[in-house]
Amino acid sequence: MVRHGAFAYTWDLVGDPAAAARFADLGIDTVTLQAAYHSVRATTAWHPSHRVVHADHAAAYFRLRPERWRGLRPLAPTWGVDDEDRFGTASAALAAAGLRTEAWVVLTHSSVLGRSEPSLAVRNAYDEVFSYALCPAQPAVHDYALTIVQEICEQYDVPALVLEACGWLGFEHASQHEKTSGADLSACARDLLSICLCPACAASLALDVGELAADIRAVVDRELQEGTHAGAGLADAIGAERALEIYRHRRSVIGGLVREAGGLADGRDVLLMATDDPQVTGPDVGVELNGVEVAAFVLKCWDDEEAAISRMKAAGTRTGVPLVANVNALGERPSELPGLVARLVAAGASEVRYYHAGLASPARLAAIRAAVQEVS
Ligand SMILES: [Zn+2]
Fold this sequence. Notes:
Elements (H helix, E strand, L loop, with lengths): L2 E6 L1 H4 L5 H6 L5 E8 L2 E4 L8 E4 L3 E2 L25 H11 L3 E7 L4 H6 L4 E3 L5 E6 L4 H17 L4 E5 L22 H7 L5 H6 L4 H18 L7 H5 L1 H25 L4 E7 L9 E2 L9 E5 L4 H14 L4 E6 L8 H10 L4 E5 L6 H13 L2
The chain binds zinc ion.
Zinc ion binds next to helix 7.
C-alpha cells in the first residue's frame, strides 16, 4: 500500500473550515504541514478571507513558548488569519477530517535570522555572508534547529517530522530577485561558492582553510573572468583529498543533527529531505544515504522524469531505508503526474508527497487525485 500525502501551509487551513475536507477529497491520507518555514508569497484560491499571503520573513507556525529558547529563536507570523497556534489549529482540523499530519520543518533557511546574526550564516571563500543560510556547524544554529524539533514534539502528537534544509544552503537561492544567471556559473563553480568557511566550519575542517579559500577564489575567478570551466566536480577543482574532508565535515554535522533530532522525536519518524550526493548543498541536503539513519528519505523528483526515475532506483541500491518521492504538481505538465508517480513507485518509492495542496489549480488538483487513485 503506497502512502500518498500532500504539502500544505497552515494558512491554507486556519480560518477555512472547508479546507481539510477538500484535502481529504484528494484521496491522500497525510498532510505535510508547514511548522517552520521561510518567507514566501502564496496564493490561497479558496480561503474565505484572503487570496494572496505574503509571509515576508521566516517564521514558526507552532506555538512559541518564549521560556524555551536561548539565543536564536524563530519569529511568529504576522500574516494570514491571526492564531497563536496555527499548526495546532490546522492539524486538529486535519485530524477531524481523518487525515494524518506530519510536521514540515525548514531548519537553516531564515534570512531574517541570518541578517540579525551574520556571524551564524554561511560564509563563502570570499568571506561573503549568505544571510539566507544559517550554518548548521555553528553551535547556536544546531541548538536552534533542535529546539524547533523539541518544541514540536513536546506540544503535538504528530507521528512524523519532515526535515528540510537540515544542513547547508549554498549559493543557490531561488529568490525572485536573483541576478546571477548571466554569469553562466557552472554547477562546479556554484558548488565551490557553496562551501562554507565560517569560523565553525574552518575549525572543524582538517585543512589549511586559508589556502583552500585562495584556491577556490582562483578557480571561480578564472571561470567568471576568463570563461575557464571550474571542473567536473569538487575533487577535480580543489583535489580529492580536500573534497573528501569537506564531505566528512558535512556528514558529521548533518548526521549529528539528524541523530539528535531522532532522539528528541521520541518514537516519531524523522524523514529527511536529501540528495544522495555529498557535493550538493540546498534544502534537500547532500549526504550519502548509507551514512545517515532516518525513518525515510524524501527525494525530490521535480526535474526531468528519466533523471528522477534513475535517481530513485540508484537510491534503492544505496540504502534499505524507505524512500518517499516528492513530486511537483505545479510543473509544466500536470496531466503526466499519474504516469510519473506510477514509475517512481515501480522504481522503489514506497510513499509519495505532492507539492502542493494549497498552491495547485483545479487542473493540478485533478492530477493529484488521479495519481492517488491510479497508484495504490
Ligand atoms: Zn559554516
